[in-house]
Write a structure and sequence with these properties.
Layout: H1 7-18, E1 22-24, E2 31-33, H2 40-55, E3 59-62, E4 68-72, E5 82-87, H3 100-116, E6 124-129, H4 142-148, H5 167-177, E7 192-198, H6 203-207, E8 211-217, E9 219-228, H7 245-260, E10 268-270, E11 274-277, E12 287-296, H8 299-316, E13 321-330, E14 333-334, H9 337-349, E15 354-359, H10 365-368, E16 374-379, H11 395-413
The structure holds glyoxylic acid and manganese (II) ion (MN) (2 copies).
Glyoxylic acid (GLV) binds near residues 133, 140, 361 and 362.
Amino acid sequence: MSGSVSEARQWARLMELAEIGGFAVPGTEDIGVNRPCLSALDRQARRVMIDWARAIGCEVSVDEAANLFFRREGTEPGLAPVLTGSHMDTQPEGGRFDGIWGVVAGLEALTAMHDAGVTTRRAIELVAWTNEEGGRFRPGCTGSMNWSGHTKPEAFRAILDGDGVTYGAALDEQLALEADIPRRALGGVPHAYVEAHIEQGPILEAEGFDIGVVTGIQGSRWFTVTLTGETAHAGTAPLRGRRDAVQDMVRAIVALNALTADPTDTLRFTVARVEVSPNTSNSVANRATFTIDLRHPDKGVLVAKGDAMLATIRGAVRDCAVEMVENFHAMPVPFDPLVTGAVAAAAAAEGLRARELPSGAFHDAQFVVPLCPTGMIFVPSRRGISHNPAEYSSPAQLAAGARVLTRVLERLAA
Ligand code: GLV
Ligand code: MN
Ligand code: MN
């Protein structure tokens, strides 16, 4: 019932949710969103979604990882449901579309079916996964990793946010404040999973396509490196005797750049979070901690480069002790032809231009792949910008994506 998708309703819902954690960027027209997972803002946005979903007869439930589910019953409730969804948390300086559009698009599809009086054999479940971004608690995708059995819930409880709050405490608080929402068991085996998301890259816009038929997701590995030296007076301590953690961090990053240099520009290597102590300009740093985000579509390259990093850092530093922890790994995954075929067919039926492309960003879909046929739908992102208040996809582009999602869900649930 893609004809009942409403561009105006979907856009209004997105803009209403963008106000929860939204901020204006001075000197621009951009609206950013900072809505950390397991926060009061997150809960406020979830309540809004719950009201909208209940208004069309969906059953709401939450699991022990705080993944939030909305179920539209099918005519044969015993059959495995078709699952769709994405995440509602954002990066600290995120935009209005990354994640939340996939949840709102799922609701738009269910609303369109409701309005048109369509029934499906299988139930359709919409999920808002907990902590996809990893912006507050590293790593991301903790909700889908718990749900899929990739990682046990206990494994994440001790993770700290920037204020020293543990993931376990934040999760317990959220579940207590949502105790009125019926609990469901963690996990499940859906018939299929499809996630709608903005592309977050420049390809669809640059080549004039409306829809991306996502073929798979490249692999990611996240590490945290801590270099420990000794603090000293910046004015009196001779350079020769210093154990300067910042200078060693620079050496380490230069060596890692050489290790990861890729003439084909396929590999992604990012250092983007740095903490230095004591963080004062006239004391030599005794500790530097930095993150590494490594990505590649080829498992062999991802494993080899990631495994070589510790030795590379040890070989590069001069004076500091080195400690490296791997926080996250998600191997590259291919998507299933059942879903990619349904996405391509739906785009064609809508008269939209579609092309296949892989995802450079990771997504919760990565962790659903082992359980059921899985795929994703992309819509264009203006200038490919994401994780940035300037992130933008137009109401018409997002409505086209919601129409494709509606068709895919109907087909998979038929
Ligand atoms: C998810 O936001 C990612 O970093 O790919
Ligand atoms: Mn996302
Ligand atoms: Mn993101």
